Structure formats: structure tokens, C-alpha cells
């Protein structure tokens, strides 16, 4: 790993409000070099606001953000190593952006000092991007491809992608994650990927940052986090007996007649051992990352928040 990639981004005590609404609450976050992070959270949790602050595209009300020990705000040297590639909306661009794809990427080539033009050309060819097409005329899928080309070809040591696969079909999404892994292994860059398509990306994330209502409630290696949870199904009395034996309160519970299914913050192995010791006939299974996310952030009976952060 070279000197450029061996820098951490450190946020401390970050707060942000829009009017009377507090969006981020005293957040601390360290993004270490050479890792792929997944940032997940419900709509309105503050993900895009946080990413904008980390990359000096948004102001903060309190706290600090530093890259390699230097503040990112109004610091060209620090920002030269950071790329924030955001989801492009065709509605927002309609009639407002007459740039062609080639002009958009030419501007990126000037803005990002680590830009790899040959890599950009290979990606353009692979994705079948028509570089003479105006940005606002692109389909949602093509817009996603433009943001991916920009992010990967920037070769920025810290590259952040906000909803990069939103417009892509399953084949293109799989190819994107393959390219991401290949590039990270070849360069040692750090990536942060914010996405709502959790389970497809879970295998790529070395570490997950879980944001809920403006708070970071988990920051953990993905496998380690997932291994802490299980689902227990069976007769309600047996399920309740196991919960009591483990001293664990269900994070989620569903009942169908006398059958019950609960999510516990207990490993499947530990729950299985306890069930065997108690002589309980139960179906115990591990959870995937998406189900862990729902268990931690589902907020049972709550209505989904409106997208605005």
C-alpha cells in the first residue's frame, strides 16, 4: 500500500440539522485505508448528508472531519484524494445539463488528479456508454453507469459511491461488484458504498456501518455482525423457554397460531446449544445481513421515513 492510500478519514462529533430537524447526532466514524465499507440505513437516516459532510460537499454544525490528519473542508490537497460519486437523477437533469457524457467525464479527468483515462475507456466500452449522448437524455441505468465510470476511473484513494447500482439490472450489478473487488485488490483503495440493495452487496462489504435516525448504531466487520444474530422458530412455549434460558429479548417476533418466530441477538450456535440443553424442539437458523438490518432498524409498526437525507 502506497503513501497515498495509507490515510484514514476520521470524523468526530459530527452534528447536522436542517432547521429544527436534527439529522446527524454527534457521530464518530473512522474509515481506514484499504477497505470496502457498506453504509446502510433506511430512507431519511442521514446517509447522503453524512457522505456529503465527509467529502466537504456539505457543511456541518459541529464536529470535525480530517483525512490523513488534515481537515477536509476547503483543503484541495485532502480533497484530491477523495471522490464522491452520487446518484444522478434524470428529472433533476432534465433541461439543466446539456453536457454530453464525454464532456462530463472530461471534466472529471481535470478534477481528479489520479484519473486513469485508459481505465475509463475500457469501462465505457464494457458498459456500452454512448459518449456523444447528453447527460439528461440518459436512461436511469446509463446514469448509474456514468457514476460508476467516474468513481472507478478517478482512482481516488478514498472513493465513495451513493446508490451506484440503483438503475442497473442484476447482471450489471454483479459486474459492478466484481469490478469493485478487482480494483480494490489491485490498488488498495478504500471504498464506501451506500446502497439499499443490501444482500447482493453483503459479500463485498468487509465492514458495515449501520446508520439509524442519525446515529451510527453498528460499525463492525460484516461476518462478525451477522454471526451475532439468529432466527428461532417453533411452538411459542418452547421459543419463550429458550429466550428465558438465554436471557435474550426478541428484536422481532411473529406469531401464527401457537407457532412463533423470533429474531435474537445470539449466535445460532449458542442458541442451538441452549435448545439442546433444555430439550427444546426448535428450528434455529442464521440471518443474512439484510435480515439483521431489518431486525435492528425495522422499528416495528413505524411508517417508513420520507427520503430527504
Commentary on this structure:
This protein has 309 residues and is an alpha/beta fold. Helices cover 36% and strands 27% of the residues. The chain is built from 12 helices and 14 strands. Residues 1-5 and 301-309 have low confidence and may be disordered.
Secondary-structure map with pairings?
Elements lengths: L8 E10 L2 E11 L4 E5 L6 H8 L7 E6 L2 E2 L4 H4 L2 E4 L4 H4 L7 H11 L5 H11 L12 H15 L3 E5 L7 H18 L2 E5 L3 H5 L4 E6 L2 E7 H5 L3 E6 H11 L5 E5 L2 E6 L3 H11 L4 E4 L2 H9 L12
Parallel strand pairs: 3-8, 3-9, 6-7, 7-8
Antiparallel strand pairs: 1-2, 1-4, 4-5, 9-10, 11-13, 11-14, 12-13
Helix pairs in contact: 4-6, 5-6, 10-11
**Residue fraction in strands:** 25-35%
Proportion of residues in helical segments: 25-40%
State Rg. Answer: 22 Å
Q: Which runs of at least 5 residues are low in confidence (pLDDT < 50)? A: 1-5, 301-309
Cα shape: elongated
Structural class: alpha/beta
**How many beta strands in the DSSP annotation?**
14
Question: Number of helical runs?
Answer: 12
For the structure shown, list the relevant keywords.
disordered C terminus, 36% helix, alpha/beta, 309 residues, 6-stranded mixed beta sheet, single chain
Briefly say what this structure is.
The protein has helices at about 45-55, 75-80, 90-95, 100-110, 115-125, 140-155, 170-185, 200, 220-225, 235-245, 270-280, 290-295, and strands spanning about 10-20, 20-30, 35-40, 60-65, 70, 80-85, 160, 190-195, 205-210, 215-220, 230-235, 250-255, 260-265, 285. With about 300 residues, the protein is α/β, with parallel strands linked by helices. A six-stranded mixed beta sheet has the order 6-7-8-3-9-10, with helices on both faces. Strands 2-1-4-5 form a four-stranded antiparallel beta sheet, covered by helices on one side. It has a four-stranded antiparallel beta sheet with strand order 12-13-11-14.
Amino acid at each position: 500500500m502506497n503513501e497515498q492510500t495509507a490515510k484514514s478519514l476520521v470524523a468526530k462529533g459530527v452534528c447536522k440539522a436542517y432547521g429544527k430537524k436534527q439529522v446527524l447526532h454527534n457521530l464518530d466514524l473512522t474509515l481506514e485505508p484499504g477497505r470496502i465499507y457498506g453504509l446502510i440505513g433506511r430512507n431519511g437516516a442521514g446517509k447522503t448528508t453524512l457522505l456529503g459532510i465527509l467529502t466537504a460537499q456539505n457543511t456541518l454544525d459541529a464536529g470535525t472531519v480530517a483525512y490523513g490528519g488534515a481537515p477536509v473542508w476547503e483543503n484541495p490537497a485532502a480533497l484530491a484524494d477523495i471522490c464522491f460519486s452520487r446518484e444522478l437523477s434524470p428529472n433533476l437533469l432534465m433541461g439543466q445539463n446539456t453536457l454530453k457524457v464525454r464532456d462530463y467525464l472530461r471534466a472529471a479527468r481535470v478534477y481528479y488528479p489520479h484519473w486513469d483515462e485508459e481505465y475509463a475507456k475500457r469501462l465505457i466500452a464494457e458498459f456500452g456508454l454512448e459518449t456523444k449522448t447528453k447527460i439528461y437524455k440518459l436512461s436511469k441505468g446509463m446514469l448509474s453507469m456514468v457514476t460508476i465510470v467516474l468513481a472507478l476511473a478517478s482512482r481516488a484513494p478514498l472513493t465513495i459511491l451513493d446508490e451506484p447500482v440503483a438503475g442497473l439490472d442484476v447482471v450489471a450489478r454483479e459486474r459492478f461488484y466484481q469490478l469493485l473487488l478487482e480494483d480494490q485488490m489491485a490498488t488498495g483503495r478504500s471504498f464506501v458504498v451506500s446502497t439499499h440493495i443490501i444482500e447482493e452487496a453483503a459479500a463485498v462489504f468487509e465492514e458495515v456501518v449501520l446508520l439509524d435516525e442519525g446515529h451510527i448504531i453498528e460499525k463492525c466487520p460484516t461476518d462478525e455482525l451477522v454471526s451475532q444474530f439468529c432466527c428461532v422458530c417453533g411452538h411459542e412455549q418452547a421459543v419463550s423457554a429458550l429466550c428465558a434460558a438465554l436471557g435474550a429479548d426478541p428484536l422481532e417476533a411473529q406469531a401464527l397460531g401457537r407457532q412463533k418466530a423470533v429474531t435474537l441477538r445470539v449466535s445460532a450456535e449458542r442458541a442451538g446449544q441452549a435448545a439442546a440443553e433444555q430439550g427444546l424442539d426448535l428450528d434455529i437458523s442464521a440471518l443474512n445481513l439484510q435480515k439483521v438490518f431489518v431486525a435492528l432498524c425495522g422499528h416495528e409498526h413505524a411508517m417508513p421515513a420520507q427520503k430527504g437525507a
